[in-house]
Each structure stands twice: as structure tokens, then as C-alpha cells.
Amino acid sequence: MFYYFLYPLAKYHTVFNVFQYITFRTIYAAVTALSLSFVMGPYLIERLRAINVGEVVRTDGPPNHFSKQGTPTMGGAIIILVVIISVLLWGNLSNAYVWLMAFVTAGMGTIGFLDDYSKVVRKKKGGMRARTKFVAQICVASGAALFLYYSRFDTAVTMPFFKNVIVDLRILYVPFVVLVIVGASNAVNLTDGLDGLAIGPMAISSATYMLLAYLAGNVKIADYLHIMYVAKAGELAVFAGAMVGASLGFLWFNAYPAQVFMGDVGSLSLGGALGTLAVITKHEVLLVLIGGIFVVEALSVIFQVGSFKLTGKRVFAMAPIHHHYELKGWPEPKIIVRFWIIAIILALVAISTLKIR
């Protein structure tokens, strides 16, 4: 919005030139999202507490989690709200990729909201049926994948660390995109089990893709780094910046001991947005490294379930893997901070792949 109303004023005064720059708008999208989170967060938490929208703790989970019963949940709604507001204020709304990001974020958020509502309001054990939720996620991701495919989006996939390894998936790119978006959405959802555990790595991953979006959208830098150039993808740095600001703002209230949980409405939407960022910036495979914490959390569940069904034995004391360390006696804050440290290291390694090719 500011881009349309203030940048044209540059012909009257050069100070308004700053509104054309993606870097400037990215910074202030992040600041706006952070500020809105601080302003709206306490009100939302009180409203959730007033209507008794509290967390339902698993009876088979770690014993120390029973104290969290009743903590306000569905706080992820504020993340979606402040991200969308910030992007509307600072983004270039003529960019189709911005609207595609908004579509996936809102779509996955709606699925998460319905799941949360079913669990905490209607008191339905387990919430939405797993199959129904999965099919709904596939529908949202398929919409994004088909839009890109029929917009003649490049269907080639590059590999980190290898300059000349490029695989053109063609029509198979559609299911590949669905896999990336749905996989990321569910992986973040599985990670959201401790106070601040998911939102910390989300801020780090979003900041990394904020950089990658800017680089991929700049034809000179992309050519210099030998990465795929994606016209107009640079504008997604503004969206990613808003995600960073919103994540940090939510972390203020979600840090141990949490005043509010994001719920599926937050984790599914943020994961879907992260996966979509990876696709549009043409760093889909690199998401495995950037979102390594989320990947390991998801794999721990897959291995646990697979092992138990095949052999009757469990790989971990409990899955996802953060619960394994809890049952091993690690204090919750130690698990959280160590996972954050690992997320930072993985992000730095991922950025280094831009030169290690």
C-alpha cells in the first residue's frame, strides 16, 4: 500500500524514493509485524483466556506437560494477521507471488483453525480427522503448484553444493511442490511441542529465505552466484521479513514458560508459507538443510511409527524427538535453546552453499 501511495511522491521529494527498495520495505515489514505483535498479543491472550480456549495436553505425554493444561492456544492466528497486515502495508501488491504466499498461508491457517476449534472448543478428541486434514492440505498445496505450473514457472530443481546438477521435473514438478509444501507444513506442526521450540527455528528459517528471495530475484547477483534467477521473486523478501517479525513477536509471549501456544492454526500456516518460499525461490531441496530441525522432528515420528509396526520396538523413548530428550531428563529450556543453536548452524551452512558449489 505504501509502495503505491508514497513512492509516486518521489517526483516531488527524493525522500520517497526509499519506498521502491525491497530492502527498505523488508526491514519495515519486519518491524511492523513485530510491533503489531507486541500491541495485539496481550489483548489476544486475554480474549483466548476469557473464552476458555485452552491447550489440551496428551495423557500419554511427558508428565511435566500436565501443568500446561489450559494455557491459551490458537495464538497462531495473530501471526497470520500481523503478517498479512504488514505485507499489505509494505509489499508490492501487483506481484502474483505475494498473493500466492498469502493464499497458502491463509489456506493452511484455515485448516489449522478448524482442527484447533474441533479440539479445544468442540472438545473432540484428536480434532479433525487426520485423513480430512491431510486431503485439505493437499488441495491448498495443489492449488499453488498448479498455479505455478500453468504460469510457466521453471520446473527445474537444483541441488545444493553442485553447480551443474539440475533436474527438470516437468509435469512431475506439480506433485513435488505439493510434497514440499505439505511436508513443511506438517513438519513444523510436529515440532510445535515445547515452549518456543517451533517459532525460534521458524524465525531463523524465514530470515534465511528472506535473504535467498532477495538474491534469487536480483538478476546480477543470481548470475554471479550461479543460482536460478526468478523474476519478481525478490518481493518475497518483504513477505519473509514480515514472517520474521511476526515470529519474534510471538516468541515474546511463547518463550518458556509460554503464555500462549500457536496451535495448528499457526504451525500449519507457517510451515506451508516456508515451503512455498522454498519453491518460489528455487531452493526447494535446500529446505531440508535450512529447516533441518523440522525435518528431523518429522523423521523421528516416521521412524518411530515404522519401527513399532515392523518390529514392535521403538527407536526413541517418545516421538517427536524433543519428547525423547525430555524423558531422558533434559530440562525443557535446555532442549529448546540447543535446538535453536542447531537451527542457526544449519542456516549458516545453507547460506554457505551459495559459494560452495
List its salient traits.
about 350 residues, mainly alpha, two-stranded antiparallel sheet, globular
What does this structure look like?
The structure is a single chain. 64% of the residues lie in helices and 3% in strands. It is mainly alpha-helical and 357 residues long. The protein has one domain (2-352). It has a two-stranded antiparallel sheet with strand order 1-2. A hairpin with a 2-residue loop joins strand 1 (156-159) and strand 2. Helix 3 packs antiparallel against helix 9, helix 3 packs across helix 10 (263-280) and helix 7 runs antiparallel to helix 9. The longest helix is centred in the N-terminal third of the chain and has 29 residues, at 22-50. It is globular, with a radius of gyration of 20 Å.
